[in-house]
Structure formats: C-alpha cells, structure tokens
Amino acid sequence: MMQQEENLSEMVEQLETSTTEAPPTTLPEEGTPDTDTPQEASGTEEVATTETPDETPSFDIPTMALNAWVTANRLTFENIRLHRTDIRGVDREKTMIVSDLDPDGVTNEAGDLIKELSLFTNADLFPMLNTEAVSMNIFSTNSFRVIYKIGDTRYLKSYGVKAGLIVVACEEINDLLIPYTKFKVKKKAIGINPPDCTVDISAKLTQVADIEAVHLLYPQIQRHTEGMETNLQVITWLMQRQASIRDIHHLVQLDDTAIHIINS
User: Fold this and answer.
1) Sheet holding 127-129, edge to edge
2) Three-state DSSP class for 54?
3) Do 47 and 39 touch, CB atoms closer than 8 A?
4) pLDDT tens digits, 150-160
5) Cα separation values, 143 from 5, 178, 209, Å
6) I need a labelling partner for 71 at 20 to 30 A (CA). Which of 57, 95, 216, 225 fits?
7) Is 202 helix (H, G, I), strand (E, B) or coil?
8) What residues does each domain of the chain span?
C-alpha cells in the first residue's frame, strides 16, 4: 500500500516538474524566432519567396480556462453551482468559488441538501477539456473529476491536480467505463489528441484474473476477491469502489490497477 501511495505521489510531482510526454502541445511564446520564415533579402536582387505553411498544431479536443468552462457548463450539472462574490482585492477571474452537493444526499435539519464549497485559484489559467461533459465532482480546493464523452463508447476521466490534469481514457463495455491508458496535461497545453485503444478489451475481460497481482496493486481488495475469477469481475469491483471515494490519489490508484490488468 505504501509503495502505491509513493508511486502516485511521484506521478503528481513529475507532472509538476517534468516535460509532458502526452498528446498535449503548447504554442511557442511570443517573440520566438520562426526559423522557417524566409528572411528579407538585402540589395536589389529579386528573391523568390514561398508562403510559410501554418504550423499551428490541430487537436481533436482543445482546452479552455477553468473559469470560462465552468461558466459555460454550470447548468449541465445539477450538483454544481458557481458562486459570484465581490471581495475587495480578489480578482473574480482568477479566483472562483464552486459548490457541490454532498454525494450521499445528506440534508440539514431544515431538509436542505448539504453543499460543500471549494475555492479554485488561478482559474483563468487552469486547463479544461472543451468537449461534451457528462459529470463533474468537486473533491477539495483545486481538485475535481470531470467525465467526458468523446465517442459512442469512448470516455475520458479528467482529474484536476495542482499542476494540470491527469486524464484516463476509457472504453464503455456493459455500462462500465474500462480504463486502458493514462496521460498528463500541463497547464499550458492548448489541446489533446486522445490515444486510441490498441487492446482487445472484451477479450481481456473474459480472461482469468491474476488475483495475486491484483492484491499487490490494490491491497484493499484482498478481503473481497473470494469468488472472483475473471478480469471483468475484478475491474467491475474496482470501478464500483470509485463511487464512494473522494480522494484523487485513491481514484487514480483504482484506475491504475484496472489499466495494468487490461494491458498485462
């Protein structure tokens, strides 16, 4: 268990300090010389010129700032509310307050559903995937999960962490989102191209589960594996377990376990 937590911590630290190896790409900063653009010739000799092609990369899914994304999508989710407050010295574009209903439907003495407030800083810089979202949950300050639908059976789980996003690509099979890969999105990313699944997930799910390996990857499952025989049974339990978890590190650990099963 300790080893799993250390691995997750190292992953978040790498996201903050290392160069992203995932699909996202950033635009060059202003003032960066364009070495592909022909230089103006000196003297009177006429020089043939050619048009420089537009080298701005294209993406399947662009990003947009968190504050703009929540403003545009807040009515999509019944559990999410954006709160506008005027506080002297606080920039409303950079700082955002959002509430999320208690996931268990807990009410107060008056019968009102309890809401949890979360504060988001640098909301004008934090990236969000600008595509169809089906759910959003707020976990704590500057952390959340959004699930996007990007195809008939393709979904993305996007976890907001301090330095950007951790994105888990999933395939829907039997009403279950099966994770098959994970990548990172830094704050400066302007878009992503989600990787296609190269594994026959349906075939993997029917295979006999390596219960011993699962115990090592996610020790908390040890008391629940009696009667589990296939990968489908194990991954179903892991994904259902996520419903009661509100810690991003724990959620990603569950996804990582499923990804290992699918790709092993």
Assistant:
1) 127-129, 61-65, 191-192
2) coil
3) no
4) 999 999 999 99
5) 18, 22, 33
6) 57
7) helix
8) 2-26+58-263
